[in-house]
Design a protein that fits this description.
Helices cover 79% and strands 0% of the residues. It has 127 residues and is an all-alpha fold. It has a single domain, classed as Four Helix Bundle (Hemerythrin (Met), subunit A). The longest helix has 24 residues, at 46-69. The radius of gyration is 15 Å and the shape is globular. The protein starts with a helix and ends with a helix.
Length: 127
């Protein structure tokens, strides 16, 4: 049986971890995929790795966008808008990197993912 990514994400979220834990883990996974691509920039399969890692990252941020845009999202409106702007930046940087590849363009995507993941983990510790 094939699940679409959104259903798979929600299923894992419901069955094992809290939503914030899942979000943190997938952001770190995406950052690691991007970093692996960056660390192997000169490899023969770089374009494939780049495409896969950027698409994975965009998928995660697309899911976030969908959740942030939902009317019933419990986050404060200002925070939601800031995260939506951040996700638009990530979309733009991803497309730019696909069109004009350069390993240093991945730095900001990796950093954003790791910082958001760290913030989510801190939120969980505080709760």
């Amino acid at each position: 049986m094939s699940l679409n990514p959104m259903n798979a994400y929600k299923k894992v979220e419901q069955e094992t971890l809290s939503g914030r834990e899942v979000e943190s883990k997938v952001l770190v996974k995406a950052a690691n995929k991007l970093k692996e691509c960056q660390d192997n920039w000169e490899s023969a399969d770089r374009d494939k790795r780049l495409d896969e890692s950027l698409k994975f990252n965009q998928l995660i941020w697309s899911i976030f966008q969908s959740e942030l845009a939902a009317e019933d999202n419990p986050l404060p409106k200002d925070l939601r808008l800031n995260l939506l702007r951040l996700s638009a930046f990530i979309d733009g940087r991803s497309l730019e990197t696909l069109a004009y590849p350069a390993s240093e363009k991945l730095n900001i995507l990796i950093s954003i993912n790791l910082n958001i993941a760290a913030g989510l983990r801190e939120h969980l510790k505080a709760a």
